[in-house]
Amino acid sequence: MLRPPSPASLSVVGVSKRYGHTQALDAVSLELPAGACLALVGESGSGKTTLLRMFNRMVEPDSGRVLLDGAELRGMDPVALRRSVGYVPQEGGLLPHWRVLKNAALVPWLQGEAEPEIAAAKALALVGLEPERFGERWPRELSGGQQQRVAIARALAARPRILLLDEAFGALDAITRGELHETFLALREEVPVTTVLVTHDLAEAATLAQWIAVMHHGRVEQHGAPREVFAAPATDYVARLVARSGVLR
Ligand code: ADP
Ligand code: MG
User: Which of 50, 58, 166 to mutate to test the pocket of ligand 1 (most atoms within 8 A of CB)?
Assistant: First the structure.
């Protein structure tokens, strides 16, 4: 159910981006195998969102290449690309005047699918919201955590090959966040979509992702499995993040 046609691999090669005097990304290179989950970790302003948005061409690099299954994104039609990329923006981005099921059905509906609400109902179930119980509610009638679940369901309903999440768990209390982490891990078992998530929390990154890229001032300071990052921080900055994360290893 809701399996992507096939998950895609992603890579960025020497990507840079500047806004005026701000070097948002400075020669970033990363690779992510198909079906894997990568966390971009770093403090505010380190370039996480800029990099994330390159994967659906909401941001274009000044130089360097972004590749999906080895093909450059630059050559792809942005509309067709966004069809295969599910994006959960930092604010969730639900439409307040659309009921939950219709919100979740947005992308399949835009894509002209015959029965968008069936895909939407499946996606709501996948994120732990019974469609019968929640589908006809308004977004404002949901808790913050439930709204984030709907935002994730909306991204999944179109069966994307890539899923992008920008601080999707950031604004939630610890218990709600923990519950959403469990749901996320369970749904990744069910739907092996290639995933890039952004967080400023190294402990959260280690819980959710197989790969971590620590970003600082637009550069990747370390890219590796969580246990490598914790056991052998590559730079002083990563060592400080590890020390502050509260994770004992
Ligand atoms: P993060 O998501 O890690 O907080 P961003 O990628 O949003 O970081 O931003 C990286 C840097 O680029 C910051 O200094 C930010 O102010 C700047 N920046 C991001 N987007 C824009 C933009 N559209 N115009 C100007 N500066 C931007
Ligand atoms: Mg950001």
Answer: 50
